[in-house]
Design brief:
The protein is of the alpha/beta class. The chain is built from 13 helices and ten strands. Helix 2 links the parallel strand 2 and strand 3. It binds beta-D-ribofuranose and calcium ion (CA). InterPro entries: Inosine/uridine_hydrolase_dom, IUNH, Ribo_hydro-like.
Length: about 300
Amino acid sequence: PRKIILDCDPGYDDAAAILLAAGSPEVKIIALTTVAGNQTIEKVTSNALRIARLAGLSDIPIAMGAKRPIIRPAVEVCAEIHGESGLDGADMPEADIPLDPRPAAQLIVDTIMREPAGTVTLVPTGPLTNIALAARLEPRIVSRVKEVVLMGGACKEGNVSPCAEFNIENDPEAAHIVFNEPWKVTMVGLDLTYQARAEKPVRDRIQAIGTKPAHFLWQVLEAFAKNYKAWRGFDAPPLHDPCAVAYVIDPTLMEVRPTVINVEIRGELTSGMTVADLRRPAPEGCHTFAALKLDKDRFWDLMAKSVERIG
Ligand code: BDR
Ligand code: CA
């Protein structure tokens, strides 16, 4: 299986991303790290530990990461979508594994330096603070990772502002670092994730599986649906974060094209925008890619089968 480090801020869709990875034989989570985003670092870390237990991930290190962005003030948490706990309305067991004592950036560095070069994929599904810090802490990780597949950004419209997506907008300087290092970066942004809507038949299908993890995922999807309806008027919520994991599991699920992507860090109205140049073919050797089209039926099959496999 492909080895991944999942860096997340659970959060409903992050929780779904963990379950997708945990139930897929094509990937193996070798470290799980957290970052402040959808909720405070304490809350998302506690959620990560509890989801890990639910998902049967008892043998991996889990480390707490950045409490706030590199330069900007503390992240504005997203309680209107993810609730006060970050996972309101979803039943989880108490945590039974201790937190790794290292800061997330250190665990990321240690893991990548330990594994053979070219074998570890970074999958960030929150603000990019830990990833940027890790790249600065140990620059050799940049040439050692296989690739970075992240949920964040958008070529067209944003969500927290007309131009910016939540994960990038929360720490644009970190995102700037991540998009400018010469590793391969695939941006699984809103252009793609807005196609992964958890419609009622999908939610019913998950509920019908009948296992504990599936029941949890069903609760997650129902709460997410309710909150997205209230916030954006969406009939079905886009399940962003598992899309990044899905791309690692099976790249044929998506149409992805190479395109130059830069992160706006100065704009008054556009801060946190991922500026993708889709006007013309990307230059030779372009290291940034944007995911644009999803085979949604196969995506949902993957999601359902994975959660079922956890048992
Ligand atoms: C992203 O923002 C967060 O609220 C979600 O977990 C996802 O990672 C979508 O913009
Ligand atoms: Ca997230």
